[in-house]
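pinging the channel bc i need a second pair of eyes. not urgent but kinda urgent?? the chain im working w is below, pasted from the shared doc
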Amino acid sequence: MADIAFLLLVFFLVTTTMDTDKGLRVKLPPWPDPNNPPPISTQNNRNVLEVLVNANDMLLVEGQLLDIEELTEMTKTHLTNDGRDPRFADNSKDAIVSLKNARGTSYERYVEVYNELKRAYNEVRNEYAVNKFNRDYDQLPEDDRDEVQDKYPMKISEAEPVDVGE
C-alpha cells in the first residue's frame, strides 16, 4: 500500500503544473555604474507629465486632482500636443510621463494607473496608424509599426516611491 501511495504521489507531483505570476512587462533601466554616474537630465519641464498617487490612492496630475477616467485623455493630450498648448509637450518624441507613487499606494491602484497610461499610448499609436496607413496599429507590418513607435515612443518614467502625503 505504501508503495502505491508513493507512486501516486510522485505521479501527481510530476504531472501537476504550477501557475506562475507573470507581473507587469516593464523594461528596467540598466544597472548604474558607480564609477560613471548618469548625466543630469536637461529635459524641459513642459515635456514631463507628472502623475502622483498618494497613500490614499488619490491621483494628482500636473498639480490638480484628477479621476482615473480623465487620466487617459490628459495623457493623450500631452503626447499629441506638438507645442500647441504650453502646459504640455513640445513634441511626441520628447514627451515623458513621470509616475510617482507614495509608499502606501495600493498595488491595485498602481496597476490601474499604469494601465491607463499604457492605454493612452496604445490609443495614440492606433489613431496615428489609422490616419497614416488606414490600418490599426496591430495590423501593420513591422516597418510601419516601427515608424509609429518612433513617432510615439513609450516613455513612462517610474520614480522611487516616496511619501507624497495623504
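so The CA atoms of residues 78 and 85 lie 9 Å apart. and Strands lie at 48-53, 59-61, 64-66, 96-101, 156-158. — does that match what u expected or am i reading it wrong
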